[in-house]
TrEMBL record:
<keyword id="KW-0001">2Fe-2S</keyword>
<keyword id="KW-0408">Iron</keyword>
<feature type="domain" description="Rieske">
    <location>
        <begin position="48"/>
        <end position="140"/>
    </location>
</feature>
<dbReference type="GO" id="GO:0046872">
    <property type="term" value="F:metal ion binding"/>
</dbReference>
<protein>
    <recommendedName>
        <fullName>Cytochrome bc1 complex Rieske iron-sulfur subunit</fullName>
    </recommendedName>
</protein>
<dbReference type="InterPro" id="IPR036922">
    <property type="entry name" value="Rieske_2Fe-2S_sf"/>
</dbReference>
<dbReference type="Pfam" id="PF00355">
    <property type="entry name" value="Rieske"/>
</dbReference>
<keyword id="KW-0411">Iron-sulfur</keyword>
<keyword id="KW-1015">Disulfide bond</keyword>
<dbReference type="GO" id="GO:0016020">
    <property type="term" value="C:membrane"/>
</dbReference>
<keyword id="KW-0479">Metal-binding</keyword>
<dbReference type="GO" id="GO:0051537">
    <property type="term" value="F:2 iron, 2 sulfur cluster binding"/>
</dbReference>
<dbReference type="InterPro" id="IPR006311">
    <property type="entry name" value="TAT_signal"/>
</dbReference>
<dbReference type="GO" id="GO:0016705">
    <property type="term" value="F:oxidoreductase activity, acting on paired donors, with incorporation or reduction of molecular oxygen"/>
</dbReference>
<dbReference type="InterPro" id="IPR014349">
    <property type="entry name" value="Rieske_Fe-S_prot"/>
</dbReference>
<comment type="function">
    <text>Iron-sulfur subunit of the cytochrome bc1 complex, an essential component of the respiratory electron transport chain required for ATP synthesis. The bc1 complex catalyzes the oxidation of menaquinol and the reduction of cytochrome c in the respiratory chain. The bc1 complex operates through a Q-cycle mechanism that couples electron transfer to generation of the proton gradient that drives ATP synthesis.</text>
</comment>
<dbReference type="InterPro" id="IPR005805">
    <property type="entry name" value="Rieske_Fe-S_prot_C"/>
</dbReference>
Length: 141
């Protein structure tokens, strides 16, 4: 080591700095797949009946707590399903009223027809799931 190399102060990298950087990197990777439409159903529910069609009112909907999904029927015979987790902080949205699903934690609002964010603080839409009616049940496809 030369005398000029000894005179340069090298910053020490502590354990917390390394762990913090690793945590930020891991969070970035985990969040990269979030938001928008769900390409496939949540694990374990594809092909399962998540609700009875008769239990989902026209112009309203029902939160299915077991799978954290909200099923809506914006117009007669048209069923939609979305993640019930608000895209702001993950609180469960309430069943829709007057075509709007509201998050009780911070007041974000989502359209019951397409899951789009209508009012913040959330900015991203709810993840949408494909559904079909089979017999009297609503099935995630």
């Amino acid at each position: 080591m030369t005398s000029s190399e000894r005179d340069v102060a090298m910053p020490e990298i502590g354990r917390r700095t390394v762990l913090g950087a690793a945590g930020v990197a891991a969070c970035g990777v985990a969040l990269a797949g979030c938001g928008g439409e769900a390409e496939s159903a949540a694990p374990g529910i594809k092909g399962k009946e998540i609700a009875k069609a008769a239990d989902v009112p026209v112009g309203g909907g029902k939160v299915i707590s077991r799978w954290k999904i909200v099923v809506t029927q914006p117009t007669a015979g048209v069923y939609k399903a979305f993640s019930a987790a608000c895209t702001h902080k993950g609180c469960a949205v309430a069943s829709p009223k007057e075509g709007v699903m509201t998050c009780p934690c911070h007041g974000s609002e989502f359209d019951a027809n397409d899951g789009k964010c209508l009012k913040g603080p959330a900015t991203a839409p709810l993840a949408a799931y494909q559904v079909k009616v089979q017999g009297d049940g609503i099935i995630i496809v």
